[in-house]
Write a structure and sequence with these properties.
- It is a single chain.
- This protein is mainly alpha-helical.
- The protein has helices at residues 34-48, 65-72, 79-99, 101-107, 129-146, 150-157, 186-197, 204-218, 222-233; strands at residues 16-17, 32-33, 118-119, 122-123, 174-175, 180-181.
- The chain has two domains: 1-158, no CATH class; 160-240, no CATH class.
- 48% of the residues lie in helices and 5% in strands.
């Protein structure tokens, strides 16, 4: 697949770090890494092809989303599909960078400097590769399950704290004692946000896994997870 930045102004002027590593340190001024950018667009591509019938080598339709993606990227699509996907990516990144204040501010900087948004105090989830990818995957799920626009999905997520030093992300994504990211809990992010918006968007197995993961990450018992931690963030009826 060709790169999906095209004429997207959010990625002009060295805002993507061309690195072999996925992580990005505070000394770098870029928004994110090329690897994370690719993975985010891959999540968008999975959504783009969700309703397409893609065949395996035996000529049978592929059911698994991951296998559909693997099969789709083996061959170059026709020019219209490429153009449509680039348009989808452009729409997503344009609307995302206009919606959230920290991204809007960064986009309009003449000399990109992410230090305000990625630093030893934590900063914004959007400026950490692990969290950014989890957020993009969450937006994709919300758009699919709620049949809503990207802007609607962004609005839902904007109800939650999106800075790493907030209580929602301490010991899940952020170690406050060390001032470092915790990258092993990235799978919790999407499930936690979906649960807090509407727990019907995840199944019982996912819900149980989330509660267990939160117990382990925060070193608290199940009752504390459910009645104290989650209760702070679960959206009340009418909020969503």
């Amino acid at each position: 697949m060709q790169r999906a930045d095209g004429q997207q102004p959010f990625f002009d002027n060295k805002r993507i770090l061309d690195s072999k590593n996925k992580a990005i340190s505070e000394r770098h001024k870029e928004f994110t890494t090329i690897i994370t950018f690719y993975e985010c667009n891959e999540a968008l591509l999975s959504m783009f092809i969700a309703d397409k019938e893609i065949m395996n080598r035996e000529g049978k339709p592929i059911k698994s989303a991951n296998r559909k993606l693997e099969a789709y990227v083996r061959y170059r699509p026709n020019e219209k599909e490429i153009s449509d996907f680039v348009s989808l990516c452009d729409e997503f990144w344009s609307e995302l960078s206009d919606f959230f204040p920290e991204l809007r501010e960064y986009k309009h900087q003449v000399d990109p400097d992410s230090s305000k948004f990625r630093n030893r105090q934590g900063g914004s989830l959007f400026f950490r590769p692990t969290a950014l990818l989890a957020l993009v995957k969450t937006f994709v799920v919300l758009k699919n399950k709620r049949n809503c626009t990207f802007k609607d999905a962004f609005a839902l997520i904007s109800n939650f704290p999106l800075t790493l030093d907030s209580d929602m992300w301490k010991y899940i994504l952020w170690n406050p004692a060390k001032g470092t990211m915790i990258t092993t809990n990235s799978a919790i992010v999407k499930t936690l946000l979906l649960y807090c918006i509407d727990n019907k968007m995840i199944d019982k197995k996912e819900s149980e896994s989330l509660i267990k993961a939160l117990q382990d990450a925060r070193q608290i018992d199940r009752e504390t997870v459910e009645k104290e931690f989650l209760d702070q963030f679960v959206m009340k009826s009418g909020d969503s």
